[in-house]
Amino acid sequence: MASAPSVDENIGSNPLLQDFDFPPFDVVQAEHVRPGIRALLKQLESDLDELEKTVEPSWPKLVEPLEKIVDRITVVWGMVNHLKAVKDTPELRAAIEEVQPEKVKFQLRLGQSKPIYNAFKAIRESPDWESLSEARKRIVENQIKEAVLNGVSLEDDKREQFNKIEQELERLAHKFSENVLDATKKFEKLITDKKEIDGLPATALGLAAQRAVSKGHENATAENGPWVITLDAPSFISVMQHARNRSLREEVYRAYISRASSGDLDNTPIINQILQLRMEKAKLLNYKNYAEVSMATKMATVDKAEELLEKLRSASWNAAVQDVEDLKNYSKSQGAPEADDLTHWDINFWSERLRESKYDINEEELRPYFSFPKVMDGLFNLAKTLFAIDIEPADGLAPVWNKDVRFYCVKDSSGSPVAYFYFDPYSRPSEKREGAWMDEVVSRSRVLSRNGTTSRLPVAHMVCNQTPPVGDKPSLMTFREVETVFHEFGHALQHMLTKQDEGLVAGIRGIEWDAVELPSQFMENWCYHRDTLMSIAKHYETGETLPEEVYLKLLAARTFRAGSLSLRQLRFACLDLELHSKYIPGGSESVYDVDQRVSKRTQVIPPLPEDRFLCSFNHIFAGGYAAGYYSYKWAEVLSADAFSAFEDAGLEDSKAVKETGHKFRETILALGGGKAPLEVFVAFRGREPSPEALLRHNGLLPVTA
């Protein structure tokens, strides 16, 4: 009996292998992954063989062919990985899991290539070194450093051990994040009695009823239920902030902090394996611990990071203690029986009530002022003012993975396109991972020019998880969601407005990890800038602008509980550094003991003994933040200081704002990884960074008498 042609025979039509301007996101299916990635790796293996045979220590004979190889794997694997994050299916997962080891094996071979490493060293030692541009010097130095960290200098058996570790780490990271996703999806609480969810705002009830409909309760309504509560951020946060039912808050909180910590989805053994393997990897590379490996490619050192965290911790502690006192007193004044015994599932609830009474701001009541289309218009107008760019809708120009995804073109002041980006704004819990992120689709590059004359233009994607439109209303955002969009757009700007043509250091490539959050956190500051906010905040039905007194309250509320929020980030950052520098896997202390110990210094109300938040800490076990979570705070110092340049110039002086914006674009957004981040910062600010602006913005500077 004749069999149908196998997928392998259709390799020519595999969308992953096509030459494209924009990836064919609409047609890539799970069945394309195995044959597509395997065919790609085979091609790249032979390209690498060729490069190793013909390599010479020159740009055309070394860096250009290398960039082509690196770019191809980055772009194609990036497509597949992106689809896993936004359109997850069991089939796609299985396919990626199967080819992942082959992809890692290729990357290791590339990263450990002696001929390439030796050619870079020859450039470094050649008499022409001094005549190279700064960006080219950075590429050479980065490549030498990366090769050493990739194990290029290890002897055979050690290299084999190193490669096994890398494979296993990659596999464990995937498994870790899948367990978090599955554990998050697993929890569902069906509620039929409206009294049980008293206090939940209309948007949350609408969302919970929509969930119920999707679970087969087709007659569910926001008004009469039934309602389904999940651990997805929009659902979880609204319960913690608004549900008057204390036992519901407790149940949901306990479920949240114990995600992926038991049964088939238990991440505890995975955490221990990851930490053990990272430690072994560090030792193979002659480092004392994994934190030192991490810092080898960052601005900071372990000591400098710890010093900054301690400086911020001591500035935040008293304010955080006062925050808890304020909540006790306020909840007592409201007759709360739990006032003397406030715990984790009370803090967010009473904070919201205190915020409402103190600033008379109800996040939910502000939603109608932040409709998604208006927010985007305001953001794009700000980008035009600061950076002299126009952002135009270009839907239909590029294929997308979901009907809600928008596509935009970025043009410079002369009307020429300089970049493109996708934006996938809404939460889709069944297939999309939580959080918000930006990543590159392709980066700017001279070598990979599409027409042989002008550089290939950068393309980015931004992904958020905000509340979807309900019925015929647009997506109405919380102020926090507005900040998130500004944040991710800051990342995208650095990728898209780069003027760097060397692809290996263009945009966000080659920028030290602890500096990458600078432009994103910088953009968040504009959410509090009067003109910017007022241009966004228009009621979606009446068009009325946000009242002035509400703006002033938002401004005042910005430092509300700043001490507590600062300590929350410091707990994560200190715990991450501790686990990667001092913790001994398999020793007398468990990872949870370390969390309890670190939390004594960083949390006014210590975590519950059964807190297993580490089991869902994707950032450090499945993201790029291992021994790097401190970089949020490190970059916050840089970004607050950068924004203070606009404050110094005068935020109301539009000419000064434009001039400072131009300078920011020409330094921080333009230079990419082609110049050391400290030098880029100094080029913009005229001096080295100081934490003073951050503490001032957070209201944590001691007031001088």
From TrEMBL:
<protein>
    <recommendedName>
        <fullName>oligopeptidase A</fullName>
        <ecNumber>3.4.24.70</ecNumber>
    </recommendedName>
</protein>
<dbReference type="InterPro" id="IPR024080">
    <property type="entry name" value="Neurolysin/TOP_N"/>
</dbReference>
<dbReference type="InterPro" id="IPR045090">
    <property type="entry name" value="Pept_M3A_M3B"/>
</dbReference>
<dbReference type="InterPro" id="IPR001567">
    <property type="entry name" value="Pept_M3A_M3B_dom"/>
</dbReference>
<dbReference type="InterPro" id="IPR024077">
    <property type="entry name" value="Neurolysin/TOP_dom2"/>
</dbReference>
<feature type="domain" description="Peptidase M3A/M3B catalytic">
    <location>
        <begin position="239"/>
        <end position="699"/>
    </location>
</feature>
<dbReference type="GO" id="GO:0046872">
    <property type="term" value="F:metal ion binding"/>
</dbReference>
<dbReference type="GO" id="GO:0006508">
    <property type="term" value="P:proteolysis"/>
</dbReference>
<dbReference type="GO" id="GO:0005829">
    <property type="term" value="C:cytosol"/>
</dbReference>
<keyword id="KW-0645">Protease</keyword>
<feature type="domain" description="Oligopeptidase A N-terminal">
    <location>
        <begin position="37"/>
        <end position="159"/>
    </location>
</feature>
<comment type="similarity">
    <text>Belongs to the peptidase M3 family.</text>
</comment>
<dbReference type="InterPro" id="IPR045666">
    <property type="entry name" value="OpdA_N"/>
</dbReference>
<dbReference type="GO" id="GO:0009507">
    <property type="term" value="C:chloroplast"/>
</dbReference>
<dbReference type="GO" id="GO:0004222">
    <property type="term" value="F:metalloendopeptidase activity"/>
</dbReference>
<dbReference type="Pfam" id="PF19310">
    <property type="entry name" value="TOP_N"/>
</dbReference>
<keyword id="KW-0378">Hydrolase</keyword>
<keyword id="KW-0479">Metal-binding</keyword>
<dbReference type="InterPro" id="IPR024079">
    <property type="entry name" value="MetalloPept_cat_dom_sf"/>
</dbReference>
<dbReference type="InterPro" id="IPR034005">
    <property type="entry name" value="M3A_DCP"/>
</dbReference>
<keyword id="KW-0862">Zinc</keyword>
<keyword id="KW-0482">Metalloprotease</keyword>
<dbReference type="Pfam" id="PF01432">
    <property type="entry name" value="Peptidase_M3"/>
</dbReference>
<dbReference type="GO" id="GO:0006518">
    <property type="term" value="P:peptide metabolic process"/>
</dbReference>
